[in-house]
Design brief:
- It is rod-shaped and about 190 Å long.
- The N and C termini lie far apart (about 170 Å).
- β1 (about 75) and β2 (about 80) form a beta hairpin.
- It folds into 2 domains: about 15-85, no CATH class; about 120-210.
- It has helices at about 15-25, 30-40, 50-70, 85-215, and strands at about 75, 80.
- It has a two-stranded antiparallel ribbon with strand order 1-2.
- Mean pLDDT is about 80; it is low at about 70-85.
- α1 packs antiparallel against α2, α1 (about 15-25) packs across α3 (about 50-70) and α3 (about 50-70) runs antiparallel to α4.
- The longest helix is centred in the C-terminal third of the chain and has 133 residues, at about 85-215.
- It is built from 4 helices and 2 strands, in the order αααββα.
- With about 220 residues, the chain is mainly α.
- Keywords: Coiled coil.
Length: about 220
C-alpha cells in the first residue's frame, strides 16, 4: 500500500459514506483504513488517525443535523409527532458506543486468537518434546533391559564357574586327604620294615656269631 497522500484534501460525500458504512459494519479501524484505501484513488488515501477524526465529524454533524431539524412537533407526512431530543442523543450515543465496543471486542478477539495461536504453538512444541522424551525413555528402557539381561548372564556364568571351582577344590581336598592317609600308611609300613630289617640284621649278626664260634671249635 502506498503512503497515504490524501492529507488536507476535502472528503467527498461518497467517501464520508464509505467511512461511516465501514465503521458501522463492525470493522476495526485497521480494517476500515485498509478497505478505505483499497477503494479510493491512490492520491486520496488516508491514515487511521485521519479516518477516525473524519468519522467523529460525521457523527457530530449527523447529530447536529437531527437536532437542528427536530422540533417538539416535527411533521412527518403531514402527521405531527413529538420527538424527544434527549432520546435521539441517547440513541446516537449508544450507537457510537456500540460501534466502539464492537471494535474493541474484535480487537480483543484478534488478540485472543493471536494468544491462542501462540498457546497452540507452545502446546505443539511441548507435545513434540513430550514425544521426544517418550522415545528417549523407550530407548533407555530397552538399553536398561539389555544391560540387565547381560548382567544376569554374567551372574549365571560366574555362579557356574564358582560352583565348578568349589567342586574342584573339594575334590582336591579329598585327594590331598587321601594322599596324606596313604603317606601315613606308607610311613607306618616303612617303620615296620625298618623294625623287620633291624630284627633281620640282629638275627644275621647272631647267626654270624654262632658260625664264627663253630669255626673256632674245628680241629687244627
Amino acid at each position: 500500500m502506498s503512503k497515504p497522500s490524501g492529507r488536507g484534501k476535502e472528503y467527498l460525500d461518497w467517501e464520508r459514506k464509505l467511512i461511516r458504512d465501514l465503521r458501522h459494519s463492525g470493522y476495526t479501524w485497521e480494517l476500515v483504513t485498509k478497505s478505505y484505501n483499497e477503494t479510493v484513488a491512490p492520491d486520496r488515501q488516508r491514515d487511521e488517525t485521519a479516518l477516525r477524526t473524519q468519522y467523529k465529524l460525521i457523527q457530530k454533524n449527523k447529530t447536529s443535523l437531527i437536532l437542528g431539524l427536530a422540533s417538539p412537533n416535527m411533521p412527518l407526512d403531514n402527521h405531527p409527532i413529538s420527538i424527544n431530543l434527549a432520546f435521539i442523543q441517547d440513541v446516537l450515543s449508544k450507537q457510537e458506543m456500540d460501534a466502539s465496543q464492537i471494535a474493541d471486542l474484535e480487537q480483543a478477539l484478534k488478540q485472543a486468537e493471536a494468544s491462542n495461536l501462540q498457546e497452540r504453538s507452545a502446546n505443539a512444541q511441548l507435545l513434540e518434546r513430550s514425544h521426544r522424551l517418550q522415545r528417549d525413555l523407550a530407548e533407555v528402557t530397552i538399553a536398561k533391559e539389555t544391560l540387565e539381561n547381560q548382567l544376569a548372564e554374567v551372574n549365571r556364568s560366574f555362579n557356574y564357574r564358582h560352583h565348578q571351582y568349589e567342586t574342584t577344590i573339594s575334590q582336591l581336598k579329598s585327594e590331598i586327604k587321601a594322599h596324606r592317609s596313604t603317606i601315613d600308611n606308607l610311613e607306618g609300613v616303612i617303620i615296620s620294615l625298618k623294625d623287620d630289617i633291624e630284627v633281620h640284621v640282629s638275627t644275621i649278626q647272631f647267626l654270624e656269631g654262632i658260625a664264627a664260634d663253630m669255626d673256632g671249635e674245628e680241629p687244627a
